[in-house]
Amino acid sequence: MEPTGSLAQGSEMRIPSPSPSPPPTAPxxxxxxxxxxxxxxxxxLPAVLLLLLWSIVPLAMTLWFSFQxxxxxxxxxxxxxxxxxxxxxxxxxxxxKSIGNTLLxxxxxxxxxxSLGTLLAVLFDQDFFGRGVARVxxxxxxxxxxxxxxxxxxxxxxxxxxxxxxxxxMSVGLEPIDWFSQAPLASxxxxxxxxxxxxxxxxLLTAIQALDPERKEAAxxxxxxxFSMFFxxxxxxxxxxxxxxxxxxxxxxxxxxxxxFVTTAGxxxxxxxxxxxxxxxxxxxxxxxxxxxxxxxVAIILANxxxxxxxxxxxxxxxx
Length: 320
Known about the structure:
- The protein is mainly alpha-helical.
- The chain has one domain: MetI-like fold (Orthogonal Bundle).
- It has helices at about 5-10, 40-65, 85-90, 95-125, 130-140, 145-155, 165-170, 180, 185-210, 215-220, 225-235, 240-255, 260-265, 275-285, 290-320; strands at about 70, 75-80.
- The protein has a two-stranded antiparallel ribbon with strand order 1-2.
- The longest helix is centred in the middle third of the chain and has 32 residues, at about 95-125.
- The chain is globular.
């Protein structure tokens, strides 16, 4: 008997098809690790508090003392005087003179550093022997401390008897010049410009090196000469870099102090006194903390006005 064979011949064997497997289920939601859900406030809070203490507390104390009568020679006599310190400051002829000197220093140093910095940047962009050493020597004055720089110019370069400039003048038959007595503000401008010229040249040189060489090559092929290249290719390309240089330098030039303190002490008279030195004179020469604080408030207002103007001008330049 072959029962299995007869069954195989009489009917087909059907193999059941496998049933479809159920779709995979999503894992149960667990704690998310998204960066946006991480609480960073506890990490930033110490730095924010330190920054607030560093800036808000001195500002608040300056405002408070500007409405107080407080003199270090007579600290027991103090009290609220309202706007008396501001009235004294406004009626002081030194305020208008110091603000004018401050604006003159800022304006002339910007003109000198931007114009000469542009020329130096174009020069050091060329390929010549010793360019690396020349670049290092160019930026060296920027790393000299302002006090040291002022002493070098006062005792080695501009000294009326032993200075290098006086020696050169006498060698050609000219009389030496007492720079800090006859031209005090111009002397300060020269010293500060010498310090900030490397900064401007370095920023502008970096911008020139970012200029596409194909643009300059196309201009040369169109017959553009050196002057046309400079005024129509390089200068428009440097517009944003010049704006950055102007903004950064202005914020620092408003507070020039060490060069004036070391060389002219604000004199003769008020000829080289800027707003920062006027505040120093009120606070540490006349010991009038109230008037000095009022002058500090005026300086803050002036700096914010200038900064707002520069930010608007630079924003328009960048958008263009």
